[in-house]
Amino acid sequence: MLLFGHIGVTLGIFFLFAYFAPKLKTIIDPRYLAVGALLPDLIDKPLGMIVFSSSISNGRMISHTILFSLTLFFIGLYLYNKRFDVRVLTLASGSFFHLMEDQMWNTPQTLFWPLLGWNFPKDQIVDAFAFLLMLLKESFIPQFSNGFIPEQTYIPEIIGMIIIVILVLTWIKNRLSKPNVTDNEIIKENAERLATETAALYITGFLIFGLIIVRVIELL
To answer: Per residue, what are the HEC states of 65-89?
Structure first.
């Protein structure tokens, strides 16, 4: 997936799951979830394709591994238990979704690093900076086959764009109806702190639900 696919699909799954499990809103901050959904690319693409372009030339390395997301997850649980800080836990959730949406199970050497070896697969990209600009451009200008039917690669992007527009309009509506309420108060309104173990179960259910939705989108 590209920019809008990662953000829109991840946030859409969050609000859909939270509709059935409202307590999820007390342990996931949607603002940090959007950042987490892009976090692996924000780290790996500049490092792997620009800084280490001559040796690695791969935009999917350490931050696209289960190890990275699990490390964030356990740090997030610790901070949640100690200070009720949901930010790192939210970033971890977003990074897990990024791996699902990138179908990283198709690249097990990266996903399960370093269990299958210390080296990451190397891509044959001549101009990494131009490649990054191309990815950004394609996020904003999806391509269509037959003139009007979106190519399969861009279906998640279009779905993501639609979800983002709906969420932005909903946020504006809520802000207008509650002009004196801050975002943090909206998130924690009438909320009770969940036990750390319960929070971990909620996150697990959220991820499983998300994996099912992502797989359905891939089949469209």
So the answer is: CHHHHHHHHHHHHHHHHHHCCCHHH
What is the rounded CA–CA span in Å between residue 169 and residue 171?
Answer: 5
**Residue 71 burial (CB count, 10 A):** 14
Cα separations (Å) of 47 from 36, 62, 86, 92, 93? 17, 10, 27, 20, 22
Phi, psi of 150 (to 5 degrees): -65, 140
Give Cβ neighbours of residue 43 (< 8 Å, ≥ 6 apart).
Answer: 62, 63
Distance CA 215, CA 121 (A): 24
Burial tier of 137 (Cβ tally within 10 Å: 0-12, 13-18, 19+): exposed
Beta bridge partners of 150: 144
Residue-level pLDDT, tens digit, the chain, 220 residues: 567 778 888 999 999 999 999 999 899 999 899 999 999 999 988 887 777 666 666 778 899 999 999 999 999 999 999 999 999 999 999 999 999 999 999 999 999 999 988 888 876 555 555 555 655 555 555 554 444 444 455 666 666 677 777 777 776 776 677 666 555 554 554 457 789 999 999 999 999 999 999 888 777 6
Establish how many alpha carbons lie within 13 A of residue 155's alpha carbon, considering only the half-sphere containing its beta carbon: 13
Q: Is this structure's pTM higher than 0.90?
A: no
For residue 117 the two structure tokens come to: 């070896």
Kindly list the domain boundaries of the chain, sorted by start residue: 3-218
